[in-house]
Amino acid sequence: MKLNEKILEFMREKAYNPMTADELADRLDIGQLDMPGFFEVLRELEREGEIIKTRKKRYGIPEKMDLVTGRLQCHQKGFGFVLPRDEMYEDIYIPADGINGAMHSDRVIAKIVKGKTEGAKTEGEIVRILERANKRVVGTFEKSRHFGFVVPDDPRILDDVFVARDDTLGAREGDKVVVQIERWPERRRNPEGRITEVLGRKGEVGVDVLSIIRSYDIPEQFPGGVLREADSIPLEISSAEYKNRADLRDMNIVTIDGADAKDLDDAVSVERLKNGKYRLGVHIADVAHYVTEKSLLDKEAYSRGTSVYFLDRVIPMLPERLSNGICSLNPGVDRLTLSVLMEIDSLGNVCDYEIYESVIRASERMTYSDVSDILEKSDPALMERYEYLLDDFRAMEELYRILNAKRVERGSINFEFDETKVLLDEKGKPKDIIKVERRTADRIIEEFMLVCNETVAEHMYWLGVPFMYRVHEEPDPEKIEAFNKFIYNFGYSIKGIKKVHPKTLQGLIARVKGKKEERVINTLMLRSLKRARYFQESLGHYGLATIYYCHFTSPIRRYPDLVVHRILKETLKGPLKEERIEFLRGFVERAAMQSSERERAADEAEREVEDMKKVEYMADRVGEEFDGIVSGVIAFGIFVELDNGIEGMVPVSYMVDDFYHFDEKSYMLLGERTRKTYRIGDSVRVQVLKANPDEKKLDLTLV
Predict the structure, then answer these.
(1) What is the pLDDT of residues 306-321, one digit of tens each?
(2) Domain total for the chain?
(3) What gap in Å lies between CA 280 and CA 350, rounded to an integer?
(4) pTM score above 0.85
(5) Does residue 601 sit in the same domain as residue 627?
(6) Average per-residue pLDDT in the chain?
(7) Distance (Å, whole) CA 52 – CA 190
(8) 153 lies in which domain range?
(9) CA–CA separation, 149 and 139 (whole Å)
(10) Do 547 and 540 meet the contact criterion of CB atoms below 8 Å apart?
C-alpha cells in the first residue's frame, strides 16, 4: 500500500483523533531516513484537500471536522455552492458573506455551519482556498481618472478586477481584454491585476468568440517545440511497420463522417459469415504510434484533453500534420490502425473478438448523408457510384438494428432531442438556424462505436491492468424523487426511487414520445442523472445500461482514447511489469481527472458560443412573434423554447394581466385573480422584446 493511502486509511479509523506530524510518524513506524518523504506526502495530501492541518498543527480528514473539500460554484446574485469532490455528499449552500475572498471555480474547503433542514440545504462558509481557478479573467475594460477596472464576462466572477494606470497595456474604454490577477480578493476588497492582452473592440468580427476561448483557457496556438516535434514525424509508413502488423488493405473498409470532417479517426467493415453471424471491424487510427508517452506532443494533448468544436473554427488537440494528415484515415492511402474484429450473432451478442495492430487502406470516404440516401431512398446516382459497397451498407444496417434492439432490451436510455445548428456567414454573423436530422448512417456508426468501446473495456477489465474507463454512476435518489414528483403533474410516475433501473426511465421516454410534454420531461430526466466522466475503476455506465465501457474510438480528438490505446498496445506485447503497473495506476487517475475537467470546459465553451450566436440571431428579429413551448417555470418568470430551438424568458414583471404566484409543487405560475396557469409543456405565442448576445439573454413577452 502506498504511503498516502496508508495515512488516509489510518485517519479514517473510528478511534482516530487529530495528531501532530511527529505523532503520526511514530504511529505509522516511519524511520528517520524516510521522514523527508513522509513530510512531502503530508504536504501533498494537504494541498489536495484530502487532509486538514489545524491551527494547533494537528492533522485529520475533513469529514471528521465538519469540513468539505470541493469546487465553489458562484451565482451572479452573490451566493454560491460548494460541489463536493466526493459525489456521495450533496452541494453546500454558501451565503454571500461566507465566500470570504474565494472566486467561482476555486477549489476550497468549506466548514458546515448549519445542517440540512426541511426545504433548506446544508449551509457553510469557505475557510480555506486550496487552488485558484481564475488566474486570468476575460472582460470589458472600463476607465476612470486614476485607474481602470475589468468587468468580467462571466457573471459568476462576482468582483470587477482593478487595474493600475501603468498596467492597462494601452486598452481603451470598451475594449475586450485578458487581465492577469496579481492580488486575490479579500473581504470587501476587489482583486487586482494587469492587462496581458487586448482582444479588440467589443462588437468587432470574431472578438466575441475569441473572448469565450480565452475565458475557458483553450490554447489556440501550439508551442514551437510541439510543432517541430510534429514536423519531424514522417508522412510515410516505414517498411518495418508493415511486417509487425496485420495487413487489412484488401478489405472493404470505409470511413463514414460528416461532410465537413477532416480528422477521420474511425473506419468500419462488415462481412456476413457462413455461420449466419456478422464480422464487424472497427479500425481506429493508431495515434499512440506517433504520439509517444512523455513527448511534447503527449504533454500538450494531456493539457488540452480534447479538440474543441466551435461554430466557426476547430481548436484541435493535436497539430494538423497529425490530425488531418498521417493519422487521418483518408481514402486510398495506407494508414496504421488498431483493429477490433468482433463476431456478432443475430441477437447482438459478441461471441468472439480479436484486437490487433493493423494497416488499412480505406476504400472510400463516405458521408452520413450519402450512406443514408443509399439506404433510405435508394438514390440511383449514389447506388451506381458505390455499387461494389451496396451489400456492405445493407449488412451494416441489418447489424445496426440487431445491436440497437439488444441495447434497448437491456435498458439503455436513448434521448431523442431535436438538435439545431447555427449557420454563420463569412463575418461570423448568424444567418440561419437549421434542424439537424439523425439519420440511418449516423445511427449505424454510433452503434458500432458503442459495441467496440464495450468490447475493449471488458477485455481490459479482465486483464486487470490499470485503465481509464468512461463511467456514468447511478442517479442520486433525491433527484429522482424530485423528478418523480414533477412528472406526477403530467400523470406519470416511476417506481423504485432508491434504485431506479435505466429500463424504467427508458419506458417513460417511450410513453411521452410525441406528446407535448416530451421535450421537457426528457430534459428534466437528463438533469436528474449524473454527468458521465472518466475514472480509473470500472463503475459501469448507467445511461448505456452496461457494466464495462471506455472511450477507444476517437484518439485524434480525445486524450482518454489515446491513453486507452497506449495501455492496450502494451498488453498486446505481453504482461506489464510491476513498476509499470504502479506508474500507470497513478497516471490514469490523474489523467482521468484532467480529461474530465477539460471535457467539461470544452462543452461549456461550445455551448456558450452557440447560445451567444442564437441570441445574436434573434437580435435582428426584435418585435417579431413566434410559437413556443414553456420549457421551465421559476418564481420570477417562465422560460419558453421557440420552434427554432432558441430559449428565452418571459419575466413575471412583463405578465401584466394578473399577479402570478409560483406553485413550487406543481412547477407552475398561477394567476391570483384569473386563476390562469402556465405550466411546463404549455404552448404559447410570444414576441421578442430584447436580445442581449453579451449576456446570452433573450427577453420575451406573451402575445
Answers:
(1) 999 999 899 999 999 9
(2) 6
(3) 10
(4) yes
(5) no
(6) 92
(7) 28
(8) 136-202
(9) 9
(10) yes
